[in-house]
Design brief:
Layout lengths: L3 E3 H4 L4 E7 L1 H4 L8 E2 L4 E10 L2 E15 L6 E16 L8 E2 L2 E3 L1 H10 L17 H26 L1
Antiparallel strand pairs: 1-8, 2-4, 3-5, 4-5, 5-6, 7-8
Bound molecules: zinc ion.
Length: 159
């Protein structure tokens, strides 16, 4: 079921919208190397009619399948928007899509869910990442050693 609200009913009273929408329907174009919207987005919304707009308030909740940007471990990240609030105009450039009597709130909800996603998902605040310290040091030593080998090769040429 998609996030549609009957504008004719809305003229009489506010409407409660509770349910969930598949992430594939909410954000079909979403692509990220480290995140996948694989779980439905649950919503609990109250929709009220204002003069030339609808006021939508409530909360959104989902889980996002992530890969840690430091250690590449897979984990499930809870994403929640507790104070969702949107005044969506019914006319003009910023208007939400209206089909007959129904206004579609999907684009509005998508935007807030995407804004709630982290730029670099981390499995935990203390994640130390992939490389243990010993390996990193070994790499440094080798990098410092290389110019020396180049010089000695040059010395050999001169001889
Ligand atoms: Zn990690």
């Amino acid at each position: 079921m998609s996030l549609k609200v009957n504008l004719r009913l809305l003229e009489k009273e506010s409407i409660q919208l509770d349910g969930d929408v598949p992430a594939s329907e909410l954000a079909p174009d979403f692509q990220d190397e480290l995140m996948r919207l694989a779980h439905p987005v649950e919503y609990e919304l109250t929709v009220e009619r204002q003069s030339e707009a609808v006021l939508v308030t409530g909360s959104l909740r989902t889980h996002v399948e992530c890969e840690c940007s430091r250690c590449l471990k897979g984990f499930l990240l809870p994403v929640q928007v507790d104070d969702f609030s949107l005044l969506a105009p019914l006319e003009g450039e910023e208007a939400i899509p209206v089909d007959g009597d129904f206004a579609d709130l999907t684009p509005a909800v998508r935007e807030d869910i995407l804004l709630a996603l982290p730029t670099n998902p981390l499995c935990g605040p203390d994640c130390r990442g992939l490389k243990p310290k010993g390996q990193a040091r070994e790499l440094q030593v080798r990098e410092q050693a290389e110019p020396n080998t180049a010089w000695s090769a040059l010395d050999n040429l001169k001889l």
